[in-house]
Amino acid sequence: MAEFMTGTKQRSPGATRSGGAGGDAGAGPLDGQEAAALLERTRALVDPELRAAVESLPGSMRRVALYHFGWEHVDGSPAAGNAGKAIRPALVLAAAAALGGPGARVAAVRAAAAVELVHNFTLLHDDVMDRDTSRRHRPTAWTVFGDADAILAGDALQALALRLLAEDPHPASGAAAARLADCVVELCAGQHTDTAMELRAPDEVTLDEVLAMSEAKTGALLGCACALGALYAGACDEDVVALDGFGRQAGLAFQLIDDVIGIWGDPQRTGKPAGADLAVRKKSLPVVAALASGTPAAAELAALYGKPYVKGEAGDGGEIARTALAVERAGGRDWAQAEAADRMSLAMQELARAVPAPEDAGGLLALAEFVTRRTV
Amino acid sequence: MAEFMTGTKQRSPGATRSGGAGGDAGAGPLDGQEAAALLERTRALVDPELRAAVESLPGSMRRVALYHFGWEHVDGSPAAGNAGKAIRPALVLAAAAALGGPGARVAAVRAAAAVELVHNFTLLHDDVMDRDTSRRHRPTAWTVFGDADAILAGDALQALALRLLAEDPHPASGAAAARLADCVVELCAGQHTDTAMELRAPDEVTLDEVLAMSEAKTGALLGCACALGALYAGACDEDVVALDGFGRQAGLAFQLIDDVIGIWGDPQRTGKPAGADLAVRKKSLPVVAALASGTPAAAELAALYGKPYVKGEAGDGGEIARTALAVERAGGRDWAQAEAADRMSLAMQELARAVPAPEDAGGLLALAEFVTRRTV
């Protein structure tokens, strides 16, 4: 654990129990440097395992997967790699370390790679279903290799993930595989709900539905990552469940912040145009909360969301700005920020249950704050 | 094992070692009744496990899966079920029984269900990729529920398969899960090669490529089914490998016969129009063997395959009949039948290696003959 620590003072999970934690992290000592170091360290530990698994694929699927992970260009030449931030494997390792010390962290490297493989399998398939053309600043795999190869590469990554665990002699690997497979089913259910909601009118979608979808689509795998780390640390069932809850609640907080950024994010920082989610009429959490508010602004928002946005029609983003203002006036922004703080508070409670000593919880805490503290 | 046996005399695997076995099974005592009884018994044992797994899925994917398995109509009302012939789970159980007796057969029921779940996951995805509109005499799942739901249901079935094994306390379950996951990668590679070959000119495809593709796409899962049965019987590595080889070779024999039926099958028996595979210019094994023969008929076949078939253009199937004749004259039919007999002979050799006593091999033998003895 010691080598995970930087010199910065740790926020105690006990101290955050009284609510509101995470929302004001910007003022605290957790300036993201510890998380950045953790993520870098995770990449160094997990990438060789991950890369060996991908390299074991037969030619065709190896090529698609190496491209997807950013390790190869379309023409097969080596690329610097931009395989995402490795939040999920970092959570596996941090959870293992929190409950079992440095030895458990090293033992959990395969489990961390398995979680990252599952995450990337879902990205490959979701991009096909959602017809998304860009991922990590590059054309998505299906746009380059076609639907069939992107589907097959995703199928193979799921198989690789479960093979990694099945081949791992660690005593927790069986329970971890069962949990990860169960999580895949939940991820699929979340993606189904998401695609089905796209086809429904905005006022037919309830906030509870969107929260449940977000928990399944985003929270489940973050929870599973933490639970796998706990399993590899030999933790008791109660602590495994608590770590799962920590990851789920942190995941929901992350989604809420992400949705706020999708509306009010600074294009300079997000790399997306302002109000990108509003332009595609995304039923994100702040929007659905605003629609359900019963305010005059909700009625205005419903009218705007009732017809597709046509770029430039209302003159340089005027309509988008009006839509964002309606969400804000209807209370969608305040609700999302308060809800994110509540979820972080719940996450801290779960964490404190399983890891009462603040000095052991530092890594998990730093990661949770890292994913939720991104400023708008 | 005893309850598997009917009163019919068994062909000894030892007696078939000298080659040519399987090709003339029609004259033998294995008239398919034993295999039919085995398949029915398998359904009775495995269906409850399979159905419980599918019923555990969240609503949306459960609906797609229940429809795909033939257990529900599109509207969700119960259907009689037409979930295929259960060849693969029957092979798991028969292999377990051959190497470990009736106790191993019962212990292997979860593994049998897992193999059937993987088979159906690949069917769901293959139908999406190949745009096939009919499966088991019903519209395919993607035509009814859309691509996204068919992809998600397939993803979930793969996860269910590996979860079944991960949750199985049997000492062989970990090794079985690793083997099944490995097989999924091979199945994906086979499907990739198949879809990629569709886009190439017939004379660019070699016979070795088509044989390798058929082994990956069809042989691998039949081999894996037998290997899982052996693992659950506590067999040594050598016997597991032999059983895998038996299933693979029998699977290739099956594919060869299936390809012959796809050209010369009786429409009354196959339910497909005569020469169905020729009409879609399928690069099946007899066709590719014929094209590679260097005969004048090969040149005629290449010319016919060089342009798409337009129904009725050459008058009521005249062109299809001419194409079938060219394949036959170029030796494609004879080659496929001889190759099928050779593969069955190899399968018998592998089987005899692991299961020397004929009375123990009866179930596997009956199943292998059942899948390959279908007359044209």
UniProtKB/TrEMBL annotation, chains A, B:
Region listing for Disordered, in residue ranges: 1-31
GO MF terms, alphabetically ordered: metal ion binding; prenyltransferase activity
Transmembrane segments: none
Signal sequence, renumbered to the chain: none
One Pfam family per UniProt: polyprenyl_synt
Gene3D superfamilies, sorted: Farnesyl Diphosphate Synthase (1.10.600.10)
Protein name as it appears in the record: Polyprenyl synthetase
Gly residues bias locations: 17-26
Alphabetical list of InterPro entries matching this protein: Isoprenoid_synthase_dom_sf, Polyprenyl_synt, Polyprenyl_synt_CS
Cross-referenced PANTHER family: GERANYLGERANYL DIPHOSPHATE SYNTHASE, GERANYLGERANYL PYROPHOSPHATE SYNTHASE
Family statement drawn from the similarity comment of this UniProt entry: Belongs to the FPP/GGPP synthase family.
GO annotation (BP), single: isoprenoid biosynthetic process
UniProt entry keywords in alphabetical sequence: Magnesium, Metal-binding, Transferase
PROSITE patterns: POLYPRENYL_SYNTHASE_1 (PS00723)
